């Protein structure tokens, strides 16, 4: 039963991946192909309880097709290890799946264009927790899941948890917690921010131990 369900999930994620590979509607498609870059779909467990959502791939990510594998990604791995998790136990993705030129911020149009893929990934993975990394991810996810009224400066709401629902493929509301964190890149040259992120990460520990479903 479980394996059939998983096969379905893998097939659905493959469909997301296939669509992104051929996403000619994106203004970033030509830049990707000209540079022989890859789209970065996401990586980790398709059954993860915790889904991390970053901003957009940087150069290292676009060259490998893997999310968060540069300097910020190394720190993300350290943060995960600090609460006893590996990257294989969670799912890591971005809102925008192609690299914007010169690492510029994704535009609102790019976020609008790519966000349906993230919405589909939420429905496929069915996470208990969506962790936003940085203000772009937070700025999309909070309003998307009916938390517009909670939107504030990231300096005010980092490390907070918000209860909401997402609608699954049968349009049934499913409870999910959104956790808003700083982007790990913000901590690269700032020791104070590193400590803040480490402390904020601790909030995720409560999903690691569950009597019903241990991680
Ligand atoms: N920054 C992001 O937001 N995502 C990545 O995958 C890498 C760096």
Describe this entry's structure for a reader.
The protein is an alpha/beta fold. The protein has a single domain (4-205), classed as 3-Layer(aba) Sandwich (Uracil-DNA Glycosylase, subunit E), CATH 3.40.470. It contains 8 helices and 6 strands; from the N terminus they run ααββααβαβααββα. It has helices spanning 2-21, 29-34, 59-64, 71-82, 108-125, 135-144, 154-157, 191-201; strands spanning 43-44, 50-54, 91-94, 129-133, 160-167, 173-181. The chain has a 6-stranded mixed sheet, sandwiched between helices. β5 (160-167) and β6 form a beta hairpin. α1 packs antiparallel against α5. The longest helix is centred in the first third of the chain and has 20 residues, at 2-21. The two termini are 20 Å apart. The structure holds uracil. Uracil (URA) is lined by residues 40, 54-58, 61, 67-68, 72-73, 94, 185.
Number of helices: 8
**3D shape:** globular
Please give the CATH architecture.
3-Layer(aba) Sandwich
Percent helix range? 40-55%
The assigned structural class equals: alpha/beta
Topology, number of strands: 6
Major β-sheet annotation:
6 strands, mixed
Which ions, cofactors or small ligands are bound in this entry? uracil
Radius of gyration: 16 Å
Average pLDDT, rounded to a whole number, is 94
Which fold does the CATH topology refer to? Answer: Uracil-DNA Glycosylase, subunit E
Sequence stretches where pLDDT stays below 50 over 5 or more residues: none
Q: Strand share of the residues? A: 15-25%
End-to-end separation:
20 Å
Instruction: Determine the CATH superfamily.
Output: Uracil-DNA glycosylase-like domain
Number of separate domains: 1
Could you name the CATH class?
A: Alpha Beta
Kindly report the spatial arrangement of strands forming the biggest sheet: 1-3-2-4-6-5
């Amino acid at each position: 039963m479980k394996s059939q369900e998983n096969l379905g999930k893998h097939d659905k994620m493959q469909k997301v991946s296939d669509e992104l590979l051929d996403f000619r509607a994106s203004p970033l498609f030509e830049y990707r192909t000209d540079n022989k870059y890859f789209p970065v779909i996401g990586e980790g467990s398709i059954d993860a309880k915790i889904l991390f959502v970053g901003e957009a791939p940087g150069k290292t990510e676009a060259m490998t097709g893997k999310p968060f594998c540069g300097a910020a990604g190394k720190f993300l791995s350290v943060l995960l290890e600090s609460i006893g998790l590996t990257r294989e136990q969670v799912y890591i993705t971005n809102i925008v799946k192609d690299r914007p030129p010169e690492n510029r911020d994704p535009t609102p149009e790019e976020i609008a264009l790519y966000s349906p893929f993230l919405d589909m990934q939420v429905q496929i993975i069915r996470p208990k927790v969506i962790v936003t990394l940085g203000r772009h991810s937070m700025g999309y996810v909070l309003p998307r899941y009916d938390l517009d009224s909670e939107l504030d400066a990231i300096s005010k709401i980092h490390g907070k948890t918000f209860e909401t629902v997402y609608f699954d493929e049968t349009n049934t509301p499913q409870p999910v917690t959104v956790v808003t964190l700083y982007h790990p890149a913000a901590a690269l040259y700032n020791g104070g921010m590193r400590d803040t992120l480490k402390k904020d990460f601790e909030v995720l520990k409560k999903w690691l131990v569950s009597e019903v479903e241990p991680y």
